[in-house]
Design brief:
Blueprint: H1 7-23, H2 30-33, H3 39-54, E1 62-68, H4 72-78, E2 84-89, E3 93-95, E4 99-101, E5 109-118, H5 129-135, E6 136-146, H6 157-162, E7 167-172, E8 188-193, E9 196-202, H7 210-223, E10 233-235, E11 243-244, E12 250-255, E13 259-266
Parallel strand pairs: 1-10, 3-7, 4-13
Antiparallel strand pairs: 1-2, 5-6, 5-10, 5-11, 6-7, 8-9, 8-12, 12-13
Helix pairs in contact: 1-3, 5-7
Length: about 270
C-alpha cells in the first residue's frame, strides 16, 4: 500500500480534511480533487493528520485503533473486499454516562460495537483467532461516534480512509466482559436513542466474528511495520446500522443482557 502521489499532493489533501474539521465546514471528497487517489495514498494522508494531531497542543496519545467496513453490505457499497482502519487517540474518548459536545462534530452518527482491550501485544503476521483470544484482557460495550469531514457523507473507500476511517469519538463501558462469558459472534447488540431501539445486530456482523476483525487488523498493521500493543483498545466494527445523532439525545449501547455504555449529546 505504498502511496503513488507526490508528497506535496498528499499534504494538500491532508490539509483540506484538517481544515474542514477545524472550521466545521465539510470539504469536497478527496477523490474528486485527486482522481488517481489510491488506497495507499489515502492511508498516507491519514498518517499525516494523525501525526498532526499527536503533535498538537493537547498532546494526545495513540490508545488504539478502529476497524471499519466490516459488514458485507458496506463492503458492497464501497466496492471493496476488506475492512479499513483508523487511529484512536486519547482525546477522542468520552466517559460513559458523560456529555458529548456537538462542538467539533460536523455530521455525526453512532454505532454499537465490541471493544477489545489487549493485555499483550500481538504478532505482526499469521495472526489468527486463537492469538487474539490469548492476547485479550477483556472486552467492553462501545459506542463509536463516527463523523465525516467530507460534505454530505459522499464517500468511497479512499475518502473514508484518508479521513481517519471517518472516526471522531468513542465511548467505552466500564464493566469488563471476559471472553469466556460470551460468544463474540453470537452476542446481541441493541443501540437506543432516548430509550428507543434504533439499531440492533449481533457480533457476526463484523467479518462473521469480531475476533477475526482484530486478527485482520493485526496482520494488516504488521504488513505496514506496525503492531497492536498491550493496553490498546480496538473497536472491532459496527454490529448494526449506523444512526444520526443530535444535541439533546441520549444514546445507549447494550451488549447481551447486562453490559452497557451511554453518552448524552449536548450543544
Amino acid at each position: 500500500m505504498e502511496p503513488t502521489m507526490e508528497p506535496e499532493g498528499l499534504e494538500s489533501l491532508a490539509w483540506m480534511l484538517w481544515s474542514a474539521e477545524v472550521t466545521g465546514e465539510a470539504c469536497a471528497p478527496p477523490r474528486e480533487v485527486a482522481e488517481s487517489l489510491s488506497i495507499g495514498d489515502a492511508y498516507a494522508i491519514q498518517r499525516i493528520n494523525v501525526a498532526r494531531r499527536l503533535a498538537s497542543e493537547a498532546r494526545p496519545r495513540l490508545v488504539g485503533h478502529k476497524i471499519g467496513v466490516t459488514s458485507e453490505a458496506v463492503q458492497r457499497w464501497l466496492k471493496v473486499g476488506e475492512p479499513d482502519f483508523g487511529a484512536l487517540l486519547s482525546t477522542m474518548e468520552v466517559p460513559s454516562g458523560g456529555e458529548t459536545p456537538m462542538r467539533g462534530l460536523l455530521q455525526p452518527r453512532v454505532e454499537g460495537e465490541i471493544a477489545f482491550v489487549l493485555e499483550r501485544e500481538l504478532p505482526t503476521e499469521g495472526v489468527g483467532v486463537a492469538d487474539v483470544l490469548r492476547a485479550t484482557a477483556f472486552v467492553l460495550p462501545a459506542i463509536e461516534i463516527i463523523d465525516s469531514r467530507v460534505r454530505g457523507w459522499d464517500i468511497t473507500i479512499v475518502d473514508t480512509i484518508a479521513d481517519n476511517a471517518s472516526s471522531a469519538r468513542f465511548v467505552l463501558g466500564t464493566q469488563p466482559v471476559m471472553l469466556r462469558e460470551i460468544d463474540p459472534s453470537l452476542i446481541g447488540m441493541a443501540l437506543r436513542k432516548n430509550g428507543e431501539v434504533v439499531s440492533s445486530g449481533a457480533g457476526a456482523a463484523s467479518l462473521g466474528n469480531p475476533l477475526r476483525a482484530v486478527a485482520w487488523l493485526a496482520n494488516r498493521l504488521g504488513a505496514l511495520g506496525e503492531r497492536l500493543e498491550a493496553g490498546q483498545v480496538i473497536l472491532s466494527g459496527a454490529l448494526g446500522p449506523v444512526c444520526p445523532v443530535a444535541a439533546g439525545e441520549v444514546v445507549e449501547v447494550q451488549l447481551g443482557a447486562r453490559w452497557r455504555a451511554s453518552a448524552r449529546f449536548v450543544e
